[in-house]
Amino acid sequence: MHLGECRIIMANKKPENMTFEATIEELDAIVENLENGDLALDDALKNFERGIALARAGQSKLSDAEQRVSILLQNDDSSPLSDFDAQPE
Does the pTM exceed 0.90? Predict the structure, then answer.
């Protein structure tokens, strides 16, 4: 499978179901396509919309990771450990 096919497959996935790395990879490809300026207006708008969804999903994944790290680094040894439950937006 070459890179173009990979991008098409990733575009069919919901951003929230993708790994952070796949989200960033596809977002990079979209930015590159938009910067080239060779897309028709409708295609550019679809790419932009997809890019916004990817950026939001990536930010959510980063926020979740930051919260998990914060919980792990708490210095209060008397605090009980609890499961981390990501809150969907």
Answer: no
